[in-house]
Design a protein that fits this description.
heterodimer, A: 3 helices, B: mainly alpha, 7 helices
Chain lengths: 100, 235
């Protein structure tokens, strides 16, 4: 908040007497219980940035994995075709037909 | 020769990504109001642009297939549709994380977000049709028509902020500007270049795979026709 230095209040006088009870330390307050803070930062910038970068690479790698899966299916179809052609060739040769 | 071109482009793209990430994280300062979260934009905006590239490839391939039904056109359309889904998902997720900081919510039903979601859903349905409807000529034509129709939403996404308002930032639109810093501009240029090259690579690899699948399908059909294969039809 903006404050004009020209009308700043004068520093308060020093207390005349010491307080009768010692102020509670942050450690003792923390030990006694937890208090929520309203209006604080819900989403931390660093967390959001890292999450975004993780999301980008996870999505791209998922797509690459999908391409890999398609490639694997292509491979097995090629193998099946290869076996079929081999079988047909063997069946058409006299030696192969005898074995069949 | 073609393989050499692909690996050359792969090397350049990988190097460019290293330079881009170093520039974004080590040289570019945070933004005044958004802080470090602002750096999401260097991948969010190029991601959205790549979704447009994928969708455009899908449109070109679909129109090409409708005019001349060739495997190559179909492969381009299919690869483009999948790219549009992948980069559309990246755009939506990174945009939601940006919105969490900027708007305090992961999602808002504002014009640009809603039209982008609609576009991604159109390309998801296109991909599902291609995956499950079979490889017949009729199915391909139907998918190609959807690929053409899906592209009509792209200009609507871009101009929705202008037409209907909304909260989406309009930085870098219509005449540029909005990036007040030389490092910010350089990071954005690098981000766009790296993502564009990466999209070209992915499209190239995916089209090649699709063409191989089409070629194998024809060989299987030939094998069945010449009774070299026991099957009665290609699965």
């Amino acid at each position: 908040m903006f404050q004009d230095p020209g009308i700043a209040p004068a520093p308060s006088a020093a207390p005349l007497a010491a307080p009768t009870t010692a102020p509670a330390t942050s450690a003792s307050v923390r030990d006694a219980g937890f208090q929520e803070v309203r209006g604080g930062e819900v989403y931390r910038g660093e967390t959001l940035l890292v999450s975004a970068y993780i999301a980008i690479w996870v999505l791209l790698f998922a797509w690459i994995a999908l391409i890999w899966k398609k490639q694997a299916s292509l491979h097995s179809r090629l193998d099946a075709l290869d076996r079929s052609i081999d079988r047909a060739i063997r069946a058409k040769t006299p030696e192969g037909a005898a074995k069949e | 020769m073609r393989g050499r071109g692909f690996y050359g482009l792969l090397g350049i793209t990988a190097l460019l990504f290293v330079v881009t990430i170093a520039q974004i994280f080590f040289r570019t300062p945070d933004e005044k109001t958004m802080g470090v979260v602002y750096k999401i934009v260097y991948f969010h905006a190029p991601g959205a642009y790549c979704m447009y590239l994928g969708a455009t490839a899908c449109l070109v391939g679909s129109v090409g297939y409708l005019v001349r039904p060739k495997d190559a056109w179909d492969a381009v359309a299919r690869a483009g549709g999948e790219l549009a889904v992948a980069f559309g998902a990246i755009t939506l997720v990174t945009g939601a994380l940006w919105g969490a900081k900027s708007w305090g919510a992961l999602w808002k039903w504002e014009p640009q977000l809603t039209t982008t979601l609609l576009s991604v859903l159109i390309y998801v349905s296109y991909t599902l049709i291609r995956g499950f409807a079979g490889e017949g000529a009729g199915e391909r034509r139907f998918a190609a028509a959807l690929g053409v129709l899906g592209a009509f939403n792209l200009p609507i996404i871009h101009y929705s902020v202008k037409k209907w308002g909304g909260q989406h930032p309009t930085v870098m639109r219509e005449g540029g500007g909005g990036l007040h810093g030389a490092d910010m501009v350089l990071s954005m240029i690098l981000g766009f270049t790296a993502f564009t090259l990466f999209t070209v690579l992915l499209l190239w690899a995916r089209v090649r795979l699709e063409m191989q699948q089409a070629r194998l399908r024809r060989m299987e059909e030939d094998a069945i026709d010449h009774e070299l294969d026991d099957r009665t039809e290609v699965s």
